[in-house]
Q: What sequence folds into this?
């Protein structure tokens, strides 16, 4: 790192945040391109009740870019100057860019979902079981339905699942009826289950099969959901792929440079 007083600050915020690999990923990219004197990427724990104050801090400190993770992707929207079209359709922002004092919200999460899936399957007319109804789930719903997939949403608070399904033309079930996922071509978990307890899973193993793709947005070590899926012979996608692919798009928005994908992937793998 070659940090000086001219170095621009980018960061990720969340609650929790200590597990985040975004600083390693982005800083590896800066170093690979030799721009680590121009940009540095850090992490900050921000309670959602303080999000308005944090946004004021972006302006006061002239922070260049912010990545938003759980639980801030929806909460930040009310305090931004502009939200680009796709992020508006999704209803969640995972990327904030400070353009000369104007804070613009973007969403790159949908690319983090779409690109790994399309590397394995044509989504048209495939059935997708989406677990969760938060900010990340909204990006998934947009990504798969824009490619013609049929969506079913499962959530602990069924009303939230119903609302999201209505927005994106899908159906919904309460989480207690999770057994229906056995009929899906693709299962995508966007809840935090598996993040804090590596042995915890949202989908019982008996509902997974070799004909499915199982995508867990939780990243880091392999979750119980992915371990079970692998044992059942299913195709798996680790949350690292979502982190990387949404991160490549963020990198471009923050710096103007194409992301050095090999270097950023290497530091995470």
A:
């Amino acid at each position: 790192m070659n940090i000086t007083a001219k170095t621009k600050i980018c960061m990720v915020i969340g609650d929790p945040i200590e597990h985040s690999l975004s600083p390693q990923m982005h800083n590896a990219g800066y170093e690979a391109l030799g721009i680590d004197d121009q940009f540095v990427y850090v992490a900050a724990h921000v309670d959602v009740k303080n999000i308005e104050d944090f946004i004021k801090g972006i302006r006061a400190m002239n922070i260049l870019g912010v990545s938003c993770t759980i639980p801030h992707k929806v909460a930040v929207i009310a305090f931004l100057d502009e939200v680009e079209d796709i992020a508006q359709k999704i209803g969640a922002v995972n990327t904030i860019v400070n353009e000369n004092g104007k804070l613009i919200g973007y969403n790159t999460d949908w690319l983090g979902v779409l690109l790994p899936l399309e590397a394995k399957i044509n989504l048209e007319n495939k059935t997708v079981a989406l677990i969760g109804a938060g900010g990340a789930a909204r990006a998934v719903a947009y990504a798969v339905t824009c490619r013609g997939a049929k969506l079913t949403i499962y959530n602990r608070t069924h009303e939230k699942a119903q609302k999201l399904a209505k927005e994106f033309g899908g159906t919904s079930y309460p989480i207690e009826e999770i057994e229906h996922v056995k009929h899906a071509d693709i299962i995508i978990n966007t809840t935090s289950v598996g993040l804090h307890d590596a042995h915890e899973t949202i989908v019982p193993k008996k509902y997974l099969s070799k004909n499915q793709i199982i995508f867990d947005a939780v990243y880091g070590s392999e979750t119980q959901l992915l371990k079970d899926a692998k044992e059942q012979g299913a195709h798996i996608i680790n949350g690292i792929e979502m982190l990387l692919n949404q991160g490549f798009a963020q990198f471009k928005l923050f710096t103007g440079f194409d992301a050095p994908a090999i270097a950023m992937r290497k530091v995470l793998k």
Summary: The chain has a mean pLDDT of 96. The radius of gyration is 18 Å. The domain at 8-107+243-268 is CATH 3.40.50.10860 (Rossmann fold).
